[in-house]
Amino acid sequence: MLLAFDTATRWMSLALHDGRQLWHEATWRTPNNHTIELTPAIRQALAQNGLSPGDLTAVAVSQGPGSFTGLRIGLGVAKGLAVAQGIGLVLIPTLEIVARGIPQSAHPLIAVLQAGRSRICAQRFAWTEAGWLPAEAAAIVGWDTLLAAIDRPTVITGEIDETAHALLADSARPVTLAAGAHSLRRAGFLAELAWERVRAGQLDDPATAAPIYLHQPGAAHP
User: Fold this and answer.
1) Could you report how far apart the first and last alpha carbons of the chain are, in Å?
2) Which of 10, 25, 40 shows the shortest CA–CA distance to 190?
3) 18, 77, 124, 185: which has the highest count of C-beta atoms within 10 A?
């Protein structure tokens, strides 16, 4: 059984997946209460399914980009479980989890996360035989800059606030917003990505595994 959880932003998600099917999934919004909410949510998910930490064979966590506090807490809990239970650890980039929820499309995909100060962290993806794969590195940009670079039909998904919704609705650029259910960053998709890596033997070392931050803590914002 693989336990997957995502604490990269104020949207938290947790799932249990046995490699064939999803046993449990919960996604909720938290006002920066990751420390208080994560461990009880894990205990509850295991208990509801008649499981204990000893039944886990792997743990997966969102690697970032994301907030410093959320990523630090998530990765800390994941590393602790991996070491204490002697199980595999898998880190999955946050925007790859976002992209996983979008159906196949001939158009390019841009996945986004809120980065504060009216900025977003955005990454472009292209559809391949292996599904959505990154076409470029993630970057922190403003919506105006992102839209100015779009010159062909493009799907946008992820965390989009009300101001951005209004901007996109008024934009003359050829953009389409993914449906809300598809845009939700779900730990079920994190678990499926993680199982692919587990089967391929692509595990992360708890001693060296590190998060990807939106910006380094203490650094000046661009």
Assistant:
1) 42
2) 25
3) 185
Sign of the dihedral defined by the CA atoms of residues 71, 76, 81, 83, in that order? positive
- Could you tell me where the beta strands, DSSP code E, fall in 117-184? 119-128, 131-134, 139-142, 154-158, 175-177
Nearest to 100 by CA among 186, 179, 175, 177: 186
Side chain identity at residue 79, one-letter code: K
Comma-separated ranges of CATH 3.30.420.40 domains in the chain:
2-94+185-199, 96-183
- How much is the pLDDT for 31? 86
CA distance 119 to 188: 27
What are the per-10-residue average pLDDT scores of the chain (222 residues)?
Answer: 96 97 96 92 98 98 94 97 98 97 94 88 95 94 93 94 88 92 95 98 97 59 34
Find the length of the chain.
Answer: 222
Give the three-state DSSP class for 46.
helix
Burial class (CB in 10 A: 0-12, 13-18, 19+), 11: buried
**CATH number for the domain running over 96-183:** 3.30.420.40
> In angstroms, how far is CA 82 from the centroid of its own chain?
19
Please give the Cα distance from 79 to 95 (Å, whole number). Answer: 21
Nearest to 89 by CA among 99, 81, 97, 100: 81
